[in-house]
Specification:
Chemotaxis protein chec; Surface presentation of antigens (SPOA); about 25% helix; single chain; 7 helices; 2 domains; alpha+beta; 4-stranded antiparallel beta sheet
C-alpha cells in the first residue's frame, strides 16, 4: 500500500495525538490516577525496527472494524511498570519488574478501558473488535507483517514526579483512516495543551453535591465500567476462629445496627446509605454522598 502523502503526514500528529490523549485519559480513569500527558513522539519506519527496543511489555491489541480492518497496539513497556506500581501503591522490584496476576488483571482492565475511551472520544461508529492482551515479548499483529512501514507513538504520562511511557502502534492504513475521520482544527484556533486527567466515579446521576463542574475531559470516561459494592461492616479474626466457622455461626461486625452502610466504587468509599429491599433484591438508598472533588480524591487513593 502507498506511503502516507505529504498532506497526510502533516495531519498525522493531530490524529495520533487525539488517539493517545483519549487512551491516556481512559487508562488514568480506570486506575484511579491523576495523570498529565504530553504530545506523543511519532516515528514512521519499518515495523520490526519500531519495536526493536521493547522486550517485556504488557500489550493490548485494538481494532475498530467500522474505521479500518487493521489492528493496533497499546503497549506498557516494563520500564513503565515500576512507575505505575509506585503510583498505585503496589510492591514491585525496580531492578527486575514483574507483574503479579492481580496487577496484570488491573492493567489489562485499564487497557480495555483505553480501547473504549478512544472509540467514544473520536466518535468511531460500531463496537471495537475483540481485545487481545499479552504479557511478554512484543508481538505485533499480523497486519504489520504486510506493510512496508508502520507508525509508533510514544506518549509520556506524568504521575507526580515520575514519568511512564505508553506506546501506540498502528499501520499506515489505520493512520490514513484515522486522519480521514479526525476533524481538522479550525483556522486560528490553537490546539489545547494536555490537561490533567482525574479519575471518575462512573456516576452521572444528579444530586445536591453533583452540581459542581466535572474536570475537563472526564466525559471521555463515562463508558468505563467500575465495580460497585456495599460494605456492611468489617471484623478482624484469627485464623483458628475462621477455621472454626460452621453453619449457624454468628460473626459480629464493627457496625452498630441502623448505622449507614458504605457504598464503595472500585474499593473506595464514595457514599453512605441505608439497606432497602427492591422487589426480591437488596438495594441501598443513598443518604450521604461525597462532593465530586472528594469522590475523585477518594478514587485516586489506594486503600
Amino acid at each position: 500500500m502507498p506511503d502516507l502523502t505529504t498532506e497526510e503526514l502533516t495531519s498525522l500528529p493531530a490524529a495520533i495525538g487525539a488517539l493517545c490523549e483519549a487512551a491516556v485519559a481512559s487508562i488514568a480513569g480506570s486506575l484511579g490516577l491523576t495523570v498529565t500527558s504530553e504530545a506523543p513522539t511519532i516515528t514512521v519506519d519499518a515495523a520490526d525496527v519500531l519495536g526493536a527496543d521493547l522486550n517485556q511489555v504488557l500489550q493490548a491489541s485494538f481494532s475498530y472494524p467500522a474505521l479500518c480492518p487493521d489492528e493496533g497496539l497499546f503497549v506498557l513497556p516494563a520500564g513503565a511498570w515500576p512507575v505505575l506500581s509506585k503510583a498505585l501503591g503496589w510492591q514491585m522490584p525496580e531492578e527486575e519488574p514483574k507483574l503479579t496476576d492481580a496487577q496484570s488483571t488491573e492493567l489489562q482492565a485499564a487497557m480495555n478501558a483505553a480501547v473504549v475511551g478512544v472509540r467514544n472520544a473520536l466518535g468511531i461508529s460500531g463496537e471495537p473488535g475483540a481485545v487481545q492482551v499479552h504479557v511478554g515479548a512484543l508481538q505485533l499483529p499480523p497486519s504489520f507483517a504486510v506493510v512496508e512501514k508502520a507508525i509508533r507513538a510514544s506518549v509520556p504520562m506524568r504521575m507526580g514526579g515520575d514519568t511512564a511511557e505508553l506506546v501506540v502502534f498502528v499501520t499506515t492504513e489505520f493512520a490514513r483512516a484515522l486522519i480521514a475521520a479526525t476533524p481538522a482544527p479550525e483556522e486560528g484556533v490553537a490546539a489545547a495543551e494536555p490537561e490533567a486527567v482525574e479519575p471518575t466515579s462512573g456516576s452521572r446521576g444528579s444530586n445536591g453535591a453533583g452540581t459542581e463542574p466535572l474536570p475537563q475531559g472526564l466525559e471521555l470516561l463515562f463508558d468505563v465500567p467500575l465495580d460497585v459494592s456495599v460494605e456492611l461492616g468489617r471484623v478482624r479474626m484469627l485464623i483458628k476462629d475462621v477455621l472454626e466457622l460452621a453453619p449457624g455461626s454468628v460473626v459480629e461486625l464493627d457496625r452498630v445496627a441502623g448505622e449507614p452502610v458504605d457504598l464503595m466504587v472500585n474499593g473506595r468509599l464514595i457514599a453512605k446509605g441505608e439497606v432497602v429491599v427492591v422487589e426480591d433484591n437488596f438495594g441501598i438508598r443513598v443518604t450521604e454522598i461525597m462532593s465530586p472533588a472528594d469522590r475523585l480524591s477518594g478514587l485516586s487513593k489506594r486503600r
